[in-house]
Write a structure and sequence with these properties.
- This protein is α/β, with parallel strands linked by helices.
- Among the domains are: 204 residues, Glycogen Phosphorylase B (Rossmann fold), CATH 3.40.50; 145 residues, Rossmann fold (3-Layer(aba) Sandwich); 201 residues, Ribosomal Protein S5, domain 2 (2-Layer Sandwich).
- Helix content is 41%, strand content 17%.
- The strands form 7 sheets. Strands 16, 17, 18, 19, 20, 23, 24, 25 and 32 form a 9-stranded mixed β-sheet that branches.
- Strand 6, helix 5 and strand 7 form a beta-alpha-beta unit.
- Helix 6 packs antiparallel against helix 7 and helix 22 crosses helix 23.
- About 5% of the residues have low confidence.
């Protein structure tokens, strides 16, 4: 149902009604739109009790009436922001739990009693979940007014922060289900919890002053360009500079602190300034997307330069609405922070926002609320069942979505109904996602697709991009933004190089790689593809802001790196990255790795580019390569991020392989892996070993790569026996080798090695502090202590030697300052000891010593006689590895649960074990979540048991785990494709 008649007004009712209006604590946008609805209700003669955590002046500055009552209570914390552009997902869930879950019973009791005390006729929520439940408990009808709901927003937070918070989402949805209907605002998200829906126009605050009046009061003439800087407060560390603005521009700053000093061309606005009036006086706005800013920018036709926020799912829906009405332009966060504003400001002044819809949503919503409180029943004319099903499917996708699958606004969902509250022409037409094309679209000048389905799909996606470009058709704004950027990336008449690199499943070895262990790794089916084209700077197709940057420098065309990375909506990052390749030079020499790490860390939404662009700097530094041409890259990875299957390594290997192929640089797969490790260790700053990159580069399908990490000696490949199969089961808990746990365990391991070397040195005859006599040394062998005193790799110490001599001398833990005082250094170039932190030492030192032994044993058993004993022994080694991880502090409840489920299957064998079963499981990679590796018989029964584990895990946790199965060739085996669009296609 849609209500937007401009002729309908909120008339004074014969009944004096009492409204309880609950307002979420997230941002002023909610409070400002509530103000407009409240104003109309009060003008109609009703009492409104606003329950809020927002400052009083937000309401009292717009509504001065004795019928307005403000009750300061925070029942909904919204999203906790680390800064103005970044949401802290875990903190948001923890804060909501603290605010609304733990005290839930007392909240419900208090609110029920209060609602009765004020004789409320209707509860209105924007968009506080518990208010709907409290209304139901009090026997009072409730209505929500919103463009999003917290179950949709929190769904992704749960996936990132851990499934133990999932009950929060379900509780919120259940609370919303008590609501009678939803008054839905334009730019809305899927909201399946609500039964009936009424759509209304934009809710915006009215204007009090004209543009001319505001400028006169500010003393600013019409010849001056004005931009309003509106981020809801400024993050710490921001310092506005005079040169950020072009000549003839002034900036009006909202939310500046009283003691903040601003340049002369920046003007500080009062804390309680009435923003709509200021907006009408400006030529554009620079800020972050929220309902309040977008709706008022559209209503008053103000061009909006926006910077993406991290991890707020409402944004993409509002952004699409803003761009549909030609009112917005995105600014890259790096340009915001470095002051490269001029191209965006100049572009914004050329926009002509064309929103022509009604802006009386506050009045319309107030009339509906009044009628409902007076007893009227609104029945939606929409098919609520199908609508809720569509919304539920989107929410379900969000809760299960895997990297590479961008479902922020699915095409079928948009096509099914106008989900932005706009004209139906906004929807994408079905069947346009991929043009039916294949390798026939391209002439393959070098290489072979090797029958890989994902490579064929990637080629089809390239053909689709090219078709969209050649056709001359405009790209609909609801298409994925990254694909719009990719369509403009390449010159389709020139050669394109393409590479592929898979992720990996850590079968055995894991974190022992950095201690020199033998490791066994399997390249998985999921892979990253990279397409690259090199072009002379004068012919490179640059994005507008990159071109403007070059023109501003006045140096003529220079080489630029441009990257489009698919999956940006999923990962809440920018879809594009660009830089002048000269930024990698310091005079005649490449910049340092430390400087590069700082360069990429400036913008959290573009830190991902370090994995790709970093390969260029490593080639410059290590091989002396110089890049004279522009580089355009398209990166598409199906390797899920944060699941412990080396998504970062696959991106690095595919990127460096592509750059090398396009520039004719010959690098062996082994050397390429070592170079990619430098990217991750020194530019990204993640202290990983080399097995991930080595497997992605050197692996082969259906084989285990055997590598001795001293530092990276590939010993060969072992065929996976036909009766054995490996699976990876994702726990749903995100893993990162850049995390504190992984780094701390690595530090503890190197501390242990340093202690062992020191103990061994003290045992030698020349030591006056030795604890052993000369006769003991003769028995044990001086040679052993000499070798152990200069131990390069901890894994070269055998388990029996460790237990006999060193085990009792290694402390369980040690503080950083105590270790540094006694040993000075732990001799690890990629980690730094924190003097104030306590590090486990005994378990991290013991793990690689025993893990190396387990890997050697596992490798030997793989080629032994086929039997249940063989499978049981292999499985036992996996189990032992898993519990050793936990002893180091790298386990997790979720991975423990999966291993326990495998054990239940393992020990539930009946009379016919040959029918198939599972024999072992272990956490993989860096631990602390991620994926569990499972070993079993290669049979249908084993596959069925994997499915049963999925179901049991879902019943226990609410999360259906992703299963990795199958293998594929590494980058070295794949090589590269050199392709060119067929001439007949170009001319046809």
């Amino acid at each position: 149902m849609r209500i937007e008649s401009d002729s309908d007004t909120v008339t004074a009712s014969r009944n004096h009604l009492v409204f309880a209006y609950y307002v979420t604590g997230h941002g002023f946008g909610h409070a400002t739109r509530v103000v407009e609805v409240v104003r109309h209700l009060i003008n109609a003669g009703h009492d409104v009790h606003v329950v809020t955590g927002a400052p009083d002046y937000v309401f009292t500055s717009a509504v001065q009436s004795p019928r307005l009552f403000i009750r300061k209570v925070l029942l909904d914390c919204g999203a906790v922001q680390a800064d103005a552009l970044t949401v802290d997902r875990l903190a948001s869930l923890e804060k909501y739990k603290e605010t609304a879950v733990v005290p839930r019973e007392s909240i419900l009791a208090t609110e029920t009693e209060w609602l009765h005390s004020i004789n409320a006729d209707l509860v209105v929520s924007d968009v506080v979940p518990v208010a709907c439940r409290a209304a139901a408990d009090a026997g009072i009808r409730s209505v929500c007014v919103t463009n999003f709901s917290w179950d949709f927003i929190y769904a992704e937070y749960v996936m990132a922060a851990g499934i133990h918070h999932r009950s929060i989402v379900w509780q919120i949805a259940e609370d919303y289900s008590h609501c009678e209907f939803l008054i839905r605002l334009p730019g809305y998200c899927p909201m399946p919890a609500f039964r009936d829906v009424i759509d209304v126009p934009l809710v915006v605050r009215r204007l009090h002053k004209s543009r001319k009046e505001v400028r006169e009061q500010l003393g600013i003439g019409e010849d001056v360009k004005l931009v309003i800087f509106n981020f809801g407060g400024q993050p710490a560390g921001w310092k506005l500079q005079e040169h950020y603005l072009p000549s003839g521009w002034l900036c009006l700053v909202c939310g500046a602190s009283q003691d903040q000093e601003l340049p002369p061309n920046f003007i500080k606005l009062a804390k309680d300034v009435y923003t709509p009036d200021i907006m009408t006086a400006c030529d554009c706005m620079l800020g972050k997307i929220g309902y309040g800013t977008v709706s008022e920018a559209l209503a008053y036709k103000l061009p909006f330069i926006f910077v993406r926020r991290d991890y707020f799912n409402e944004e993409s829906f509002l952004r699409n609405m803003l761009e549909y009405y030609q009112g917005g332009v995105e600014m890259i966060r790096r340009d915001l922070l470095t002051g490269h504003w001029a191209p965006y400001l100049e572009h914004a002044t050329t926009l002509r926002p064309c929103y022509d819809g009604s802006i009386n949503g506050g009045e319309v919503a107030a009339r509906i609320l009044q009628d409902t409180a007076a007893g009227k029943n609104y029945v939606s004319d929409q098919l609520s069942g199908p609508r809720r099903l569509r919304d539920a499917i989107v929410l379900g996708y969000q809760l299960q979505r895997a990297p590479g699958r961008d479902i922020s606004i699915p095409e079928w969902y948009i096509n099914a109904q106008s989900e932005l509250g706009l004209r139906t022409s906004v929807g994408l037409k079905a069947g346009t996602a991929l043009i039916q094309s294949s390798t026939e679209e391209f002439e393959i000048l070098h290489g072979d697709v090797q029958g890989l389905p994902d490579t064929m799909t990637f080629l089809k996606s390239l053909a689709n991009l090219n078709a969209g470009h050649d056709s001359g058709k405009s790209v609909d704004v609801l298409q994925v933004r990254e694909r719009k950027a990719a369509a403009k990336l390449f010159n389709w008449e020139e050669e394109i190089f393409m590479t592929r690199a898979p992720g990996r499943l850590d079968v055995m070895g894991g974190i022992a790689d950095y201690s020199g262990s033998l490791v066994l790794q399997m390249p998985i089916r999921e892979a990253c593809h990279v397409a690259i084209q090199i072009t002379h700077p004068s012919k490179q197709r640059l994005w507008k802001h990159a071109l403007a940057r070059q023109e501003a420098k006045g140096q003529g065309p220079t080489p630029v790196l441009q990257i489009v990375s698919y999956g940006s909506e999923l990962s809440n990052r920018s879809p594009t990255f660009d830089m002048d390749l000269s930024d990698f030079m310091d005079g005649e020499k490449p910049i340092s790795y430390a400087a590069a790490r700082e360069y990429f860390a400036k913008d959290s939404s573009q830190k991902w580019a370090a994995y790709i662009a970093g390969t260029i700097l490593v080639l410059m530094t290590e091989l002396g390569v110089r890049f004279e041409n522009g580089i355009s890259m398209l990166v598409s990875s199906a390797v899920p991020e944060g699941k412990g299957v080396s998504s970062s390594a696959s991106v690095e290997v595919a990127s460096m392989s592509a750059i090398a192929a396009a520039h004719g640089i010959k690098i062996s797969p082994r050397d390429l892996a070592l170079l990619c490790q430098k990217v991750e260790n020194h530019i990204v700053g993640a202290p990983c070993g080399v097995m991930d990159q080595m497997t992605s580069s050197c692996g082969e399908a259906n084989k285990l790569l055997v590598m001795l990490c001293q530092p990276a000696e590939v010993l060969g490949l072992v065929d996976i026996p036909g009766h054995i199969r490996f699976w990876g089961i994702d726990s749903g808990i995100r893993h990162s080798v850049g995390g504190a746990d992984y780094g701390s365990v690595r530090i503890g391991t190197f501390m242990g090695r340093k202690m062992i070397k020191t103990i061994a040195a003290s045992m030698l005859p020349q030591s006056s502090n030795g604890d052993l006599h000369q006769s003991d040394l003769e028995d044990d062998g001086i040679e052993l202590f000499e070798a152990e005193s200069s131990l390069d790799y901890l894994c070269n110490l055998s388990p029996h030697r460790y237990e006999a001599v060193y085990a009792k001398m290694i402390p369980e833990s040690v503080t950083g300052d105590a270790f540094l005082e006694k040993y000075a250094d732990h001799c690890d170039s990629v980690t730094v000891i924190d003097p104030k932190q306590s590090y486990g030492v005994q378990a991290p030192a013991r793990h690689p010593i025993y893990e190396n032994f387990r890997v050697h044993t596992f490798k030997a058993l793989l080629t032994s006689i086929v039997s249940d004993e063989q499978l049981s022994a292999l499985g036992e080694l996996l189990y032992q590895c898993h519990y050793s991880y936990s002893a180091c502090g790298l386990g997790s409840d979720a991975t423990d649960r999966l291993v326990q489920l495998v054990q239940e299957m393992h020990h539930a064998k009946k009379d016919k074990p040959e029918d198939g079963t599972l024999f072992g499981a272990k956490i993989t990679g860096g631990g602390s979540g991620g994926t569990v590796c499972v070993l079993g018989r290669n049979s249908l029964k084993s596959s069925q048991q994997i499915i049963e584990i999925q179901k049991r895990y879902e019943r226990a946790t609410g999360y259906l785990p992703f299963v990795f199965e199958g293998s594929s060739p590494g980058a070295g085996k794949f090589g590269y494709l050199k392709i060119r669009r067929r001439t007949t296609k170009l001319n046809g």
